[in-house]
Amino acid sequence: MKHQHILQQNFQVSFNYDIIFSRSIFDVSNSSLIDVIKKESFFQQPKIAIVIDKGVVETANQLVAKIIDYFKYHQFLLTETSFLVVEGGEVVKNNPAAIESVLQLINNNKIDRHSFLIAIGGGAVLDAVGYAAAIAHRGVRLIRIPTTVLSQNDSGVGVKNSMNYFGKKNFLGTFAPPYAVLNDSDFLKTLSQRNWRSGISEAIKVALIKEAAFFDWIENNTQVLNNRDTLAMEELIIRCAALHTHHISKEGDPFEKGSSRPLDFGHWAAHKLEQLTNYEITHGEAVAIGIALDVTYSFLVQKIDEHSLNRILNCFIALGFSITHPILTTHLEEVLKGLDEFREHLGGQLTIMLLSEIGKGEEVHSLNNTQIADSIGYLTSFHYSNTVLC
Question: Is the model's pTM score more than 0.70?
Answer without folding.
Answer: yes
